[in-house]
Amino acid sequence: MTDGVAIEVRVNGRAVRACVPARMTLVDFLRERLGLTGTHIGCGEGLCGACNVLFESRSARACLMLAVQADDSDVVTIEGLSPPGYASNVQDCLVRHHALQCGFCTPGFVVLIEELLAEVDAGRRPTAIQIRKHLSSSLCRCTGYAPIIAAAEELVADRIAVIDSSKPQPPTEVAR
Amino acid sequence: MRPAVFDYVAASTVTEACAELGRDPDGTRVLAGGQSLMPRLVRRLDRPRRLVDICRIAELHELSATPDGVRMGAAVTQRTAELYPALRGFGVLAQALPGVGKVTTRNRGTVCGSLANANPAAELGVCLLLLGGEVTAISTRGLRHIAAEDFFLAPRRTALEDDELLHTVRYDRPQADTVGHFEKVTIRGAGDTPLLSAAVSARLGADGATDVRIGVGGEGQKPTRAPSRITAPLAGALDDPAIEHSSRLLAAELEFLGDTRACADHRRRLAIRIVARLLRRLREDLL
């Protein structure tokens, strides 16, 4: 079992070829082979959400996936969610809300919020409770959840406003 | 790398997966979403010699609703099922799915995987018992259909043989006038493994409730549906004495176990409370 399995994964839009042991988890592959250390390992057992990545556009625990399962698939990590050296909208908003302190859980939350925003783009309109439930996938042990939820709610509301304002407006009474 | 060494086979057809399973049934595990299997591998509670990945088998991605029920192949994720518009007609199943695990585990975890794993408190098993349905298993020996009530043998043990692959599950469609309610109890809220899951349903008409069903599962007690001698007296107005009587009768038959999170007696009391609460909720739907 030393020979390994050949895989080809698209990570942050870039095709990567590698030969990995079958038992290597996706998070170990991202961190140790590709040096993408923004995806953190918390519990390593699927409980904490620090290792969330977007797998085929949906959030997944990278510690509960094998690298071989990602063969011929798209993976987006925290590094792929903002231009190098700059913060994304989501990250900016989290900072504005003081939604991080040590920042260990933050990449996982950013991934969750990006997934939520993609769902908004696809037409979903999550309620406050649905936003909370979505974010309950990850644990935070310092700032607490209130500012993280506030940031997510603001981002979702902003995204909905942008989508609605770009739609053709129904004629008003005056215009008619 | 925390899991122990194993071989990995990505099967591309059901035939291939069955052949792999048949070669070393004891040492081979089916890998679908892996959301139950991976934590066990990472903790080395399980050390299979080989994993057979079934996610690349197109036929196992079947998801279709018919007037009879909804069929889900072994590779259909809980999230895909949750977002499937036709699932709305399936009462308790549609209620339970959005609360299974966390969004990140539902994105990967499969409906059939949860059933095959047979955690007795799992939402999807209790729903299968309540709605009724059928599990299709396949092996090199051929297809086998297992009725929902015969599928769970004990906590974490199913009627599946070691060399069998759970191919498809069918959840029966409830009658149009059926109302159902699902509830589970967790200690830490969303995503926590439930202490127990419970569901009730009944057909509601002018003359009250008929076909009252109760399903319960929790540590020690495999998912089970209350026998008709317990549910039959509930037909009609679902009044308090009947509810009280039935839920106590039911709880006396449940064989919960204690673990680090709750003792057996706590689970039994919870079952009485939750079932009674759900039945009262049904009564409110009668009005």
Largest sheet of chain B: 5 strands, antiparallel
The run of helices and strands of chain A is EEHEEEHHHH
**Mind telling me the C-alpha Rg of chain A?**
18 Å
Q: Give the structural class of chain A.
A: alpha+beta
- Please write the string of helix (H) and strand (E) elements of chain B: EHEHEEEHHHHHEEHEEEEEEEHHH
User: What general outline of chain B do the C-alpha atoms trace?
Assistant: globular
Into which percent range does the helicity of residues of chain A fall? 25-40%
Oligomer: heterodimer
- The fraction of residues in strands of chain A falls at 5-15%
Unreliable stretches of chain B: none
Return the structural class of chain B.
alpha+beta
Kindly, what is the distance between the CA atoms of the first and last residues of chain B, rounded to a whole number of angstroms?
58 Å
> On the 0-100 scale, what is the average pLDDT of chain B?
95
The total beta strand count of chain A reads 5
Q: What does the radius of gyration of chain B come to?
A: 19 Å
